[in-house]
Amino acid sequence: MTAFDAHLTALFACRACPNVLGEPVTGPVRDARIMLIGQAPGPREVVDKRPFAFTAGTRMFAWFRDALGISEDEFRRRVYIAAVIRCFPGRDEKSGGDRVPSVAEIANCSGHLDREIVILRPSLVIAVGTLAAAQILGVSQLKDIVGVVHRATRAGITFDAVVLPHPSGRSTWTNKKENAALLAKSLELIKERWHLGVRS
Ligand code: SF4
Prior knowledge:
The structure is a single chain. This protein has about 200 residues and is an alpha/beta fold. The protein contains eight helices and five strands; from the N terminus they run H-E-H-H-H-E-H-E-H-H-E-E-H. Helix 1 packs antiparallel against helix 5. It is globular.
């Protein structure tokens, strides 16, 4: 069994977090050199068994289509779609949205992310949202980290990292003109590095 297959077996069998719902979800691409890290799957993703399967995905893949000229299908074929945690955290009663993963859940799941980075040795990591950015850069103030390329290291592997705001409909960050400009810059940086996704 390859390291990649062993990883997927371990990930799909993981039940380390007692308060999450459903089975782990990931978007595996065996030879990917580009990884995208989201926050956590929602209920639709658990049913569809693939990340970004609902409204946030529709918005995010529209960004890639418009800025990079890349369809959702091609993106899913080329990019390993990971997440800060791989199981649906459940609903947050107060906000009505999905519950933010706990510190313990993020810690439990970080080993899966580390293993993927070691196996894939990505050239580019796209961190989507503040939690993903914190996992890669250690900071999460979007205005300071969107629109620039970072050199980051995790699990002993160094790569370029570009941050996007979370595409959830609940996020209003891109409504401000200056933030929309930062998003456009991040997408341009990804476009410039899209060729890195082809393994030589
Ligand atoms: S969130 Fe991650 S660590 Fe927790 S049960 Fe799911 S796969 Fe395992």
